[in-house]
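Teaching assistant's notes for section 4

Start the section by putting this record on the projector. Ask students to predict, before seeing the second block, whether ChrB N-terminal domain-containing protein will look compact or extended. Collect guesses on the board.
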Amino acid sequence: MQWLMFQYSVPNKPSKLRVYVWRKLKALRAEQLLEGLYALPLTAKTTEQLEWLCAEVFEMSGEAVLWKSECLSALQEEKLISRFGEEAHKGYRKIQEMLSQKPEENQKAWLDNIMRLYADIRYHDYFDTQQHYTIHTQIEKHYREGK
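Reveal the predicted structure now:
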C-alpha cells in the first residue's frame, strides 16, 4: 500500500503557525510518526488536502515536503493501519454512547449532531472500518422513529 508522508517546519514565532498546521493535520486524522512527520493513506483526497497544506506552510515562510512512500515492513504497515482503525473506532464508540443517551426533548438537534459527527468520521475512516455499518443502521433506526 502507498502512503503520503508529510514533513514540515514553520517559524517558531508566532506559535499560532505551528498550532494552525497541527490542527489541520489533526482534522485530517494524520498519524504522527516522528516529530514533524505525518502519514496518511495515499488517496486523491488526502493528496489534495496535503498539497494545500504544503502551500499554506510555504506562505508562512516555512518548509514542507510531501512524498509517496511504501512500508518496507509488513509489521510496521499493520501497526500504522491499526492506528488509523483505532481512531475510527473511538469515533464510532462516541456515537454509540450518544445514541444510548437519547434525550426526551430536542431529538432532531440531537440526531442532526450525531449525523454530522458520523459523516465526519466516515469521511476520515480511511480503511472502511466495519463498525460503521452497525452505527449507520442504528442512526437510521433513530431517524425513522423520529418521523
